[in-house]
């Protein structure tokens, strides 16, 4: 029997969780830490954290936020948004992410998927597809 898994995805822009439709009409719905704790306590199987402002603005990775959140969770944390290099992946994993999610960079540089899987293990490399 296939087990159903509950994996919430938090879209984060400028350090706040937002909700919109196709990344438009965004409304602030709360703190990433508070919502991560909520889903952790509610029994989610995993949590996905997508920094949508990283892709837009190219700011630094939100390593402190990821580290703080990962210390509060007892479920796997997947992080995505603007990840371009093996160094980005390494930093995220070293700051508490269990997995990373590649999107645009996987299309722009498909070899990144192979390189990352070989260096960090295929279990922690995910590909996100916006359709």
UniProtKB/TrEMBL annotation:
Pathway of action: Amino-acid biosynthesis
InterPro entries the UniProt entry points to: Aldolase_TIM (IPR013785), His_biosynth (IPR006062), IGPS_HisA/HisF (IPR050064), RibuloseP-bd_barrel (IPR011060)
One Pfam family hit: His_biosynth
Keywords assigned: Amino-acid biosynthesis, Histidine biosynthesis
UniProt xrefs under PANTHER family: IMIDAZOLE GLYCEROL PHOSPHATE SYNTHASE HISHF, IMIDAZOLE GLYCEROL PHOSPHATE SYNTHASE SUBUNIT HISF/H IGP SYNTHASE SUBUNIT HISF/H
Family per record: Belongs to the HisA/HisF family.
Protein name: Imidazoleglycerol phosphate synthase, cyclase subunit
